[in-house]
Amino acid sequence: MSLSSIIHWSLTSERKLNNMANDKKTVEAITPINEDFGRWYTDIVKNAELIDYSAVKGCVILRPYGYAIWENIQKIMDGMFKDTGHENVYMPIFIPESLLQKEKDHVEGFAPEVAWVTLGGSEELTERLCVRPTSETLFCDHFAHIIQSYRDLPKLYNQWCSVVRWEKTTRPFLRSREFLWQEGHTMHETREQAEQETQRMLEVYRNFCEKYLKMPVISGRKTDKEKFAGAVATYTIEAMMHDGKSLQSGTSHFFGDGFARAFDIKFTARDNTLQYPFQTSWGVSTRIIGAIIMTHGDDSGLILPPAIAPIQVVVVPVAQHKPGVLEAASSLRDRLKAAGLRVLLDDSDQSPGWKFAQHEMRGVPLRIEIGPRDIEAGQCVAVRRDNAEKTVVALSELEVRVPELLSTLEDGLYERALSNRESRTYACKNFKELESAVKSGPGFYKTMWCGDEACELKLKEQLDISSRCMPFEQENLSDVCPVCGRPAKHMVVWGSAY
RNA sequence: CGGGGCGUAGCGCAGCUUGGUAGCGCGCUUGCUUUGGGAGCAAGAUGCCGCAGGUUCAAAUCCUGUCGCCCCGACCA
Fold first, then answer.
1. What Rg value do the Cα atoms of chain A yield, rounded?
2. Integer distance in angstroms from CA A182 to C1' B7?
3. pLDDT tens, A405-417?
4. Which of residues 78-107 of A touch strand B (CB under 7 A)?
5. In angstroms, rounded to a whole number, what is the distance separating the alpha carbons of residues A256 and A266?
6. I need a surface site. Which of A16, A65, A202, A238 has the fewest CB within 10 A?
7. CA A174-A87-A235 angle, 5° bins
8. A432 touches strand B (CB under 7 A)
9. A423 Cβ partners below 8 Å, 6+ apart?
10. pTM of the complete model
11. What is the pLDDT of residues A18-42, one digit of tens each?
12. Which of A202, A274, A204, A266 lies closest to A231 in space, CA to CA?
């Protein structure tokens, strides 16, 4: 028996025992978060009814609760894009092969994971069509038609759509073959304007993650090795997950005029000369839902930040068959709804305990219990999802206290995520320190770096870590690269990534 | 792509070694009683045993092939 089969055997039998022990209680017990993070994650996405697996490997069904999270994310982000002057468009799902191949680096980067359509009905197509893995080429083809003059610039476009990348290893939300996202594509008169746009949209992403998702991120630049195929520079926001691994949560690319040249996009400039415009693109995908799960979740399941939670408050009536209870509960619901909250009154005929567990699994930020005793006392009981803290709320103060509780919960989520990141972040002056930091567990390892890709590759080989980003907020940890000893140019955050 | 494991009711699994009427728990349906942390009793319904061949009087069980999923590793804009 090989080592891995022994490990597998002991895991499955352990699970069997767990299941047997839990049978009385529930069939939906999830793996403890610190026992097997990967399994915990899969348990969550299925048990919280975010997704179901489909007939095609790597393509998941977003169930109503999971899709509602995406809709809330969309609503907020779309507003932020509109506020920064962007317009939504929709491009076709297919890209002719000749179009995809116009930019050399781009096609090389994406070719291995592109899905092709070769037949229309039973007829072989004269040119095969790729199912878009990203839409730079389509936008460029279109921009070439509509940009003539500096007066046509800037073009600030965004589209909400799905893209397909034929991945070998897949995980719900984190890496699937088809996923939903938004991709912004912009064209500018000058290099500076495009560079500014790249940074501006990264800042929109950072703001969105920190303000609404309560997820601290590090923003910075990718090394050349890690940058987007065809980009001059790629910027990223990196978030640390519960287990210390890094998740690239949004990217913003500066393309220079490379694509413009490849696609022959030209405009007449103010000085009556023909110029190539400068381009950006930026994207956030449903992967961000994976980030939310892995940042905030715990042993009881999901914890959703209120801003994107499909249900912000669940009202659970206790002894709901008794006269007056359901009426009191639905009046609570109506008042909270009127106060602008997303509320569910769970009047299903499950026991209260079952409802508690169920809504905890689904990450509802705040639960309100109301039973005969409360009604008599003119109160209800609010329970925070993140720390199970119970607060007695006078019914007369409902509209004031509930938003307060949600807001302190938001602060709590952010603080907890931040302190997890801080406790797993290591500043390393030399190779020895880096090595021992890596040994002490997954995390962010900050070091200086000479800028040479050879050193980057060496760290991958020797310590199995890759560069996550070169943060905008640089620190001076030492004067030399810990790998080669040459003068250090940048501070880099290293880690292992999802 | 390499190594390992698993496909039996909606879910989790037993049965396979040694072939002989398809099982258990949860869930589901109906009724009654319950309700402040995953309720109880009673009566029900649900299976091309992944698929295709083969051996046999007889296959969930043995043999061959095949497809799918999971884990570990490699790869991964």
1. 26
2. 38
3. 999 999 999 999 9
4. none
5. 13
6. A16
7. 45
8. no
9. none
10. 0.93
11. 333 333 333 356 778 887 888 888 8
12. A202
Cβ density class A412-435: b for 16+ within 10 Å, e for less: bbbebbeebbeebbbebebbebbb
Q: Listing from the earlier edge strand, what are the strands of the sheet with A278-285?
A: A87-88, A155-164, A178-188, A278-285, A246-256, A233-240, A217-221, A466-471, A490-495, A444-449, A425-427
Nucleic strand B within 7 A of Cβ A391: no
No. of helices (H) and no. of strands (E), chain A: 15, 23
CB within 8 A of A1, min separation 6: which ones? A9
- Nearest Cα neighbor of A381 from A315, A325, A442 is A315
A18: tokens are 């767990």
CA of A294, C1' of B57: distance in angstroms: 59
Which of the 219-238 residues on chain A come under 7 Å of nucleic strand B at their beta carbon? 227-229, 234
Q: Averaged over A231-254, what is the pLDDT?
A: 95
Cβ pair A137, A102 in contact under 8 A: yes
Residue A191 pLDDT > 80: yes
A251 touches strand B (CB under 7 A): yes
> A383: Cβ under 7 Å from strand B?
yes
Euclidean distance between CA atoms A184 and A251, whole angstroms: 10
Helices (H), A384-451: 398-423, 431-439
Q: Identify the CA nearest to A94 among candidates A59, A129, A58.
A: A129
Q: Shortest CA distance to A444 belongs to which of A243, A292, A215?
A: A243
Backbone angles phi, psi at A242, to 5 degrees: -50, -35
Considering all nucleic acid strands, name the nucleotide whose C1' atom is nearest to the C-alpha of residue A301: B38
Dig out the tokens for A408 from the structure: 């302190």
ω before A482 within 30° of 0 (cis)?
A: no
Q: Which nucleotide is nearest to A319 (CA to C1')?
A: B35
The answer to whether the beta carbons of residues A187 and A147 sit under 8 Å apart is: yes
- Chain B footprint bases within 7 A of protein beta carbons: 1, 3-5, 10-14, 25-27, 34-40, 68-77
Query: How many Å does it take to go from CA A339 to C1' B39?
Result: 35
**Distance between CA atoms of residues A417 and A398, nearest Å:** 29
